[in-house]
């Protein structure tokens, strides 16, 4: 329920009235959406070109070596997600958001002019730190602003902004690489994202007062014996709570898919004769559909529940992997069909998972719960790249895609078994 203005409406540190709701906070919410466009754009720099930089520019012969940049990115981002939740107990969300952008400043320059592959891997450590801090804070701050009744829509809009930017940037870098080479021009558009993201982050207002207001209004008081610390919340979110456990494993497998396709698809489709522009189209289409679709699916999850979108979304993704191989004799068609199904399936899953975690977490430990969920989800990047590298070196790229389909379908079935709906009075 949104907060109506009254004579006793609380105020923030600057004396402005604080109310919960999307309409009441549309200006700040919109600003955070634009910030997340910059967040997604920065990571989108790598989707098309970096695997090919590894194989063509630095002449790496092992698929596992090529995918090492994704492992570095995924592991660092996962750990940073976890730390970001804990950091909210000591620092304001805005401070963490600005710090993330400062850390990201060297990334586009390193990608553009790295003299060795080790520099690319190091740049991805910085990128993981940047993404873990900035993306975590944009989603937390949006959830803070809108309150419980619009969590699905808020997360859908946040992820839509970020992943649409990932896709558009991947598409743009593919065309720039085809016209001007793999480096440095495609990577230098990241300078725009870093500069704009930092400037906008400095303009954002913190949401601490909104969190305090939601805590005061929460219908279920925090049990006196419930520990809100990171250690207890990590255990609760990872395995003790069935629904949170189900969401965490689904998030991990979802991003395992993304990490796998990030490394495998450029190599798979170039091996079957596609050029950089076509690969850029495939790599861009997947996150664009993933991004744009979340506006509708996030809102839909507020109406019909989280579980149906999570379960069926994972199964749609599994079908995308299967069709990528079935249609591979026509590689452009295979790439487009798989990108469409992977994008739509992920759009169904992504905001519903974040909203489900928020539903099952008390506001007092929600930031840590989201940090834990995002830890497991983004470990999937590293796991996907590691699995892809080992399987591709041992059995080939096709076997890697088959393994992804099996894992994704199994994850959907686990989600169906473990996740329950949590319908608050606001929904």
Automatic annotation (TrEMBL):
Key words of the record: Cell membrane, Membrane, Transmembrane, Transmembrane helix, Transport
Pfam families, alphabetized: MFS_1
Bilayer-crossing regions: 26-45, 65-84, 96-113, 160-182, 188-204, 309-328, 334-354, 375-395, 401-420
Cell compartments where the protein resides: Cell membrane
Domain Major facilitator superfamily (MFS) profile: start-end pairs: 243-427
Topology in the lipid bilayer: Multi-pass membrane protein
UniProt protein name: MFS transporter
InterPro entries: MFS, MFS_dom, MFS_trans_sf, MFS_Transporters
């Amino acid at each position: 329920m949104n907060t109506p203005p009254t004579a006793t409406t609380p105020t923030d540190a600057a004396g402005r009235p604080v109310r919960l709701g999307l309409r009441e906070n549309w200006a700040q919410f919109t600003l955070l959406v634009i910030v997340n466009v910059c967040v997604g754009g920065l990571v989108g720099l790598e989707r098309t070109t970096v695997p090919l930089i590894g194989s063509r520019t630095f002449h790496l012969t092992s698929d596992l070596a090529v995918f090492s940049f994704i492992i570095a990115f995924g592991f660092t981002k996962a750990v940073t997600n976890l730390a970001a939740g804990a950091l909210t107990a000591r620092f304001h969300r805005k401070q963490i958001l600005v710090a993330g952008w400062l850390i990201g400043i060297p990334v586009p320059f390193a990608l553009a002019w790295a003299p060795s592959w080790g520099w690319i891997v190091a740049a991805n450590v910085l990128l993981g730190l940047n993404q873990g801090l900035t993306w975590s804070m944009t989603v937390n701050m949006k959830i803070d602003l809108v309150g419980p009744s619009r969590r699905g829509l808020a997360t859908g809009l946040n992820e839509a902004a970020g992943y649409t930017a990932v896709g558009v940037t991947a598409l743009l870098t593919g065309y720039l690489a085809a016209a001007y080479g793999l480096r440095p021009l495609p990577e230098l558009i990241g300078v725009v994202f870093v500069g704009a993201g930092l400037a906008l982050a400095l303009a954002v207002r913190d949401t601490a007062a909104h969190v305090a207001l939601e805590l005061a209004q929460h219908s279920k008081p925090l049990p006196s014996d419930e520990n809100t610390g990171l250690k207890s919340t990590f255990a609760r979110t990872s395995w003790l709570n069935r629904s949170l456990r189900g969401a965490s494993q689904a998030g991990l497998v979802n991003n395992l898919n993304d990490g796998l396709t990030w490394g495998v698809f450029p190599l798979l489709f170039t091996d079957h004769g596609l050029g950089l522009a076509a690969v850029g189209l495939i790599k861009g289409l997947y996150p664009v559909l993933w991004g744009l679709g979340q506006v509708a699916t996030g809102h839909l999850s507020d109406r019909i529940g989280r579980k149906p979108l999570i379960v069926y979304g994972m199964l749609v993704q599994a079908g995308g992997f299967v069709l990528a191989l079935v249609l591979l004799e026509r590689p452009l068609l295979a790439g487009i069909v798989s990108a469409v199904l992977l994008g739509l399936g992920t759009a169904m899953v992504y905001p519903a998972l974040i909203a489900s975690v928020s539903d099952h977490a008390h506001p007092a430990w929600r930031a840590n719960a989201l940090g834990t969920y995002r830890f497991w989800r983004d470990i999937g990047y590293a796991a996907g790249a590691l699995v892809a590298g080992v399987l591709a070196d041992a059995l080939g790229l096709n076997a890697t895609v088959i393994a992804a389909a099996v894992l994704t379908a199994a994850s959907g079935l686990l989600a169906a078994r473990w996740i329950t709906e949590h319908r608050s009075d606001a929904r």
